[in-house]
Amino acid sequence: MRTSVKIALLIVAAAALIALPIVADAMGEKAFISLATRALIYGIAAASLNLALGYGGMISFGHAAFYGIGGYVVGILSFHYAAGEPLFGVIPGTNQLLVTLPMAMLIAGLFAALIGALSLRTTGVQFIMITLAFAQMVFFLFVSLEKYGGDDGLIIRRTNAFFDFNLRDRETMYYLCLALAALVLVALWRITRSRFGFALVGIRQSERRMAAIGLSTYRYKLVGFILSGMGAGLAGALTANLLRFASPDMLHWTKSGELMIMVILGGVGTLFGPFVGAAVFVILESVLASWTANWQFPLGLILLVVVLFTHGGVQGFVERIVGRRT
Amino acid sequence: MSEPILSVRDLVKNFGGLKATDHVDLDVYPGEIHALIGPNGAGKTTLISQLCGELSHDAGEIRIDGRSIDDLSVAERVHLGLARSFQITCLLPDYTVLENVALAVQVRSGSSFRFWKGARGDRALVAPARSILEQVGLADRADRIVANLSHGERKQLELAVALATEPRLLLLDEPMAGLGSVESGEMIETLSGLKSRVGILLVEHDMDAVFALADRISVLVYGRVIASGAPEEIRASDAVREAYLGAGEEFDEGDLAC
Amino acid sequence: MTLFVEQLLNGLQLGVMLFLMAAGLTLIFGIMGVINLAHGSIYMVGAYVGCYVFLQTGSFLTGFAAAIAGAAVTGILIEFVVIRRLYQRDHLDQVLATFALILLFNQGVTMVFGLQPLFVAMPSFLSGSVELFGGLIYPVYRLAIIAVGLLVALGLYLLINHTRIGMLVRAGSTNREMVRALGVRVGLLYTLVFGLGALLAGLAGFMAGPILAVQVGMGEQILITTFVVVVIGGVGSIRGAFVASLLVGVVDTLLRSYLPGLLRQVMVGPEADALGAGISSMGIYLIMAIVLLIRPKGLFPAHG
Known about the structure:
- The complex is a heterotrimer.
- Helix content of chain B is 37%, strand content 23%.
- By secondary structure, chain B is α/β, with parallel strands linked by helices.
- Chain B has two domains: 1-81 and 167-258, 3-Layer(aba) Sandwich (Rossmann fold), CATH 3.40.50.300; 90-166, no CATH class.
- In chain B, strand 7, helix 6 (181-194) and strand 8 form a beta-alpha-beta unit.
- In chain B, helix 3 (97-108) packs across helix 4 and helix 4 packs across helix 5 (151-164).
- Chain B is globular.
- By secondary structure, chain C is mainly α.
- Chain C contains eleven helices and two strands, in the order H-H-H-H-E-E-H-H-H-H-H-H-H.
- The A-C interface holds A 53, 59, 61, 118-119, 121-122, 124-126, 128-130, 132-134, 136-137, 140-141, 143-147, 150, 253, 257, 260-261, 264, 268, 294, 296-297, 299-301, 303-304, 307-308 and C 29, 33, 35, 82, 85, 91-93, 95-97, 99-104, 106-108, 110-111, 220, 224, 227-228, 230-231, 235, 270-271, 274-275, 277-279, 281-282, 285-286, 288-289, 292-293, 296-298.
C-alpha cells in the first residue's frame, strides 16, 4: 500500500494505543488495559521471534526458553534482593528495572548464543527439533531448581522499581510496555533495513547464493538468532513484572508454539504482523476461554484453517484487500 | 607466460564406483577464456562444484595464484577472487535485479555487520551495482523482482552477480543454456569484453559460442580430459570426434564453422 | 550388580519404546520430508483406545487389536485430511498445522475421557516376575515389551532391506525427487509409510498403558525425547533410530537411577533429589549436543 496511507494508519494506531487506557477507564472496562498490556508484551516476543523466523528463515521452536529465562532473571534477582544474599555469593540481587531488564536481555542472549551456536550447525527439520529439544532442556533445568520455586514457579513480591513509577498500577505498566514496544519496533525497523538485514533476508531466500557471493552465512544467522533471543528475554522480564510471577509455563514448549501462532496469524516476515498477531491471539484466547473450558479446540481449528487455507496471515489478508504487496 | 590464476592437478572424485572426476589437470591464465566441453554426463558440473568448493574432492590439488584452496569453504574461495555462475540459476527471488547485485557489492566490501543505516538506498552499493547492470545489459530491468524475469534475463543476472564480487577467475556453468540467438549473441559480446580483466573457465554446449570465445579448449569425457589445446587442434582431433560421435552427438564440419 | 542389570533392562525397555516412535517419525521425515508433531497424539490415541477397550472387555488382546486399529485409522485420517496438503509446503506451515492437531487431539481426548488419567492393570498372563540369571527378579511385562520391540526392529529390518516396498522406502529416503520422477505411486507409498508409523506409535502407546499413566499430554513428552533420538541417530535412518533409541533409553534410565544417589553425597536430601531429577532430564540433551558437535547430521545420516 502507498506510503501516505501507511503513515496515516500508523498515526491513527498510535493515537488509539495512547488513548486506550483513558477510553477503557471511561467505559468501565479496566481489565481491557491488562489485556492490551499482555498483547504488547507478546508482540515484543513474537516480533523478536519473527526476526529469526520470518526474516532469517530460522524456524526456532524453542523461543520459550529465552522468554522464560527473561522472566526468571527478574525473579531470581528479586529473590536475592529480598533475601539480602547475593547470587552465587557474588552477584547482588536487585529490584531496579533499569538493571533487571538489560540483565534479562543479556542472559537470554547468552543462552541464545549457546543454543544457536550448536543448533545452527544444522538446518531444516533437524534445526526445528534441536531448538525444541534444547528449550525443553532449559525447562527441566529451571524446574529442578527448588530454591527458585521448582514446579510451582517463583513468586515476585514486588514489581521492579522504575524511578518513582508504580508498576503495579495498570496504566503505568501499560505505558511502559507501549514505550518499549515502540522502541523494539523502531529497532527492528532499522535492523531489517540495514546491511545486516539485507544480508539476513538474502540468507533466508538462498544460503547457496549467499555463500556464492562470499558470505559466511553461519555467523549472520547466529547474530540474528541472538538478537531474537534478547528480544524474547525482554518480553519475559516484562511478563514477570506484570504477573509478579516467574512460571515454568513460560518455558514450556507450548509457549514456543503460541509465539509461532502469533507470528503466523499476523504475517510472517512483516514488521507489524507479530504485534497484530499477538493482539489477535490474546483476544481470541480471551473470547474463546469465556465460551468454553476447552478453548484450545476451537483455537486449534482456527489455526489449522489459517495455515492450510490462507497465505500471509492477517497482514497479508489486509494487504490483498487494500493494495498490492510492497 | 604468466602464472595461471587457476591450477588444478590430478583432481579425483568418486561416487561409489563411479569416477566422476578422473585425474583431471587444468589451468586458466589471466586474460584467457578456457572452454570446457564434453558430452552430457561427462562430469563438467561436478568439476565446477569441486572448484568452487560445494563438493569436496577426494584427491588432487586446486590452487588459486599458486595458493592451495583445498580446505577453504565456498565463501572463502570467493574472497580469493573465484566467482561462479550457476547452470540452473540460483538467485534471490524476492529481491529485485538491482538488489541482487547490490547485495553482492555489499558482501564484497565486507560491511554486512551494520545495523542502522538503510542498505537499499545506499549510493555506495547502488552506484556500482547499476554500472555492472549496464555492462551486462540489464540496466532497464533494475527494479524488476527476480521472480518476474525471463530465463535469459536470469542468466544475465547470474553473470552480473558474479561480476559484482570483483573476481579474478570466473567459473561459468553454461551461461548460454536456454538463450535465444539474439540473447546468445549479446552474452558472447559481454563475455569477450570481460576477457582482459579476468580469467574464465567456460563450460558450454553451444559450439558457436565456444569457438567464438575460447583461447583454449579442454574436452571432458567420463571424467577424463581427453584433449586440451588451441581450438584448431580440438577441431582436428580424432579422439574428440570419436568421443562425440560415440556418445551419439553430431559433430560434423558444419557445426565447426564460426 | 543385579541392580545395575535391572536398570539396564529398564533402559532397554524404554529404548525399545522410543524405537517404535522414532522409526515411524524418521521414516516420515526422511521419505516425505514432513515434520509431524502429531505423532505423539497418535501414541496417545493408541493408549486411550486400547486401554479403554481393554477395561471394557477385560481382554488384553482385544485391547491390543483396538489400539493398533485405532492408531492406524487415526494416522490414515490425519494423512488424508491434513498431512497430504503439507507435502509441498514449507516447514513452518507443517509445524503449525501439526501443532494445531496436537491441540485438537488433546482437547478432544479431554472432552471424551475427562482429565482423570486412565488406569489399567497389567494383564494377568503377563503379570508377575521371573527370575533371571544371578538372582535378578524382573517383571514379565517389561520383558514382553522388550521382546515385542526387538521383534518389530527385526521385522522392519527385513521389510526395508528385503522387500520391494522396502527398496522404495530406502530410495525415497535418499532421494525423494528421484522416486517421484520414476513414476512410483508416491501418494500410496506415503500413505502406507504414514500408516505404518502410526501403527507403531499406537503399539507403543498401548504397551505403555499399564506402566505409565494414560493421560492427556503423554504424547508430547515422549515426542520430544523421540526427536532427540532421531537427531542423534540421523534423520531418515532406521538403523540410526535403533542405535540412538537404545542409547538414549539406557543413558536416561541409568542417570535417573544413579544420579540422585550420587548427589546425596554432597547435598541435602530433597534438593539432591530435585537437582538429580533435573540433571537426569537434561542428560539426553547434553548427549545430543555432543553428537551435534562432532556429527551435525547424526550418527547414521541417510542422505548422502
